[in-house]
Amino acid sequence: MTDHLPPIVVSEGDYDTLSELAERTERALPKVSGFLAAELARAKVVPASRVPTDVVRMGSRAAFRMEATGVEREVTLVYPAEADILQDRLSILTPVGTALLGLAAGQSMSWSDRTGNRQRLTLRTVRASAAG
């Protein structure tokens, strides 16, 4: 069974930077860079000014629920160099980070974790990062 992939929206700037990042990390992180590349390939790419305010982009603060456990988290989606899980700064180069990219509030996304198990999250809310 294949999961329905929700439509996603990515800004032109995020698309360009993340495409390069996926390419640069292909050897070191083949699964997550492949997942990121696949998500970017299916994204609707628009100017930054046309990304809806309820869509996760780089720097967004995203609240989501893990469907299997019911655990709710709120993170800021960041580039790897800015990641700090103790400050809830989640790298785009994680399966959860990639799954969040481009989602709108209310959408759900599934992916396979490192052990091959299917995971699913539902995006609750999104807001711009206070820290720019």
Q: What would you note in describing this structure?
A:
The chain has about 130 residues and is of the alpha/beta class. The longest helix has 13 residues, at about 10-25. It is built from three helices and seven strands, in the order E-H-H-E-E-E-E-H-E-E. The radius of gyration is 14 Å and the shape is globular. The strands form two sheets. It has a five-stranded mixed sheet with strand order 5-4-3-7-6. Strands 1-2 form a two-stranded parallel ribbon. The protein has helices at about 10-25, 30-40, 95-100; strands at about 10, 45, 60-65, 70-80, 90, 110, 120-130.
Short recap of the structure:
With 132 residues, the protein is α/β, with parallel strands linked by helices.
Mean pLDDT: 93
Determine the fraction of residues in helical runs and give it as a percent range. 10-25%
Tell me the strand percentage band: 25-35%
Terminus-to-terminus distance? 40 Å
Computed over alpha carbons, the radius of gyration is 14 Å
Q: What strand line-up does the widest sheet have?
A: 5-4-3-7-6
- The number of distinct β-strands equals 7
Structural class: alpha/beta
Q: Please, how many helices?
A: 3
Order of helices and strands: EHHEEEEHEE
Low-confidence stretches: none
Molecular shape: globular
The biggest sheet, with number of strands, parallel, antiparallel or mixed sense and barrel status, is: 5 strands, mixed
